[in-house]
Amino acid sequence: MAGVGIVIVTYNSQAEIGACLDAALPRCTDLVVVDNASGDGTVGEVQRRGARLIGNRENRGFAAAVNQGVAALNCSYILLLNPDAVLKTGVEPLQAACDLPGSAGAGGCMMNADGSPQVGFMVRALPTPSALILEALLLNRIWPHNSVNQRYRGLHLDYSKRIEVEQPAGAFLMFRRAVWSELGGFDEGFHPLWFEDVDFCRRVRDRGYRLYYVPDAVVNHTGGHSIPQLPVEVRRFYWYRSLLRYSAKYFRPAELKGVSLAVVVGSLLRAMGESFRCVTLRPFAGSGRIVRLAGQCFRAGWADGKNITVRRF
User: Fold this and answer.
1) Mind listing the pLDDT tens digit for each residue in 12-67?
2) Which CATH number fits domain 4-119+159-221: 3.40.1550.10, 3.40.50.300, 3.90.550.10, 3.40.50.620?
3) Considering only CA atoms, which of 238, 254, 249 is closest in space to residue 289?
4) pTM for the full model?
């Protein structure tokens, strides 16, 4: 077992996957694309380039697809790469960071189309209850330079040099396979997406490993190509549900109650804004489901107890 393997998860990624593969295939030992039942021409683009493909008959979610891809590779280092991320450099700087004492993995610099780094996304701190409360209430958007948000989004960091960080983005993240195996891979309970990479980084840090940001590994990243394909009320529900699941997994009961209340208020505010903007009451259908889930978390914690360990203090 040696070298770097790349895992790319696709879902209706026809417009993006070609450029991603053209840049990635020459820069790795092995590569696998896991497609979550795309309905467009994604599979054809992958096959035209001769890349290895695992085609799921249904959308299994991002975490499950990542676990499939890692299991299919026989490499010591695994790079998770979004289909809308195009490598501009080799991956050797990430591999070197993975070999630092106590290191589990590393993420690199993600660039916008205009050449600016995606500060606020490519590296974040692990979320605290305060950060998620402000996030749920939309206050981080209204007041982005508050001290909690500055730390959460890494707005104070020096991205010109290699630094130890808490949460490199899963869109461009390399980790040692041995650590992935030790942790049991991604938690597939974060379905279909969001917070699975945050949870993984949290478990990495809880085991005492380090994670790094490396400026010498660079991708151009479009971002969010598959999310707009979902109705707004559906993606809101997925996001809030994963946020609540993460909170139930790691926060004290009182902190979970605070996050749950913020989710209730925030989801209703979002629904009001979207309904006014789009002149439809449809967003309130999704907010009702969110409010019910948050209310249950407030009263009794996370419902799916067989798949999640809720920390008690």
Assistant:
1) 999 999 999 999 999 999 999 999 999 999 999 999 999 999 999 999 999 999 99
2) 3.90.550.10
3) 238
4) 0.93
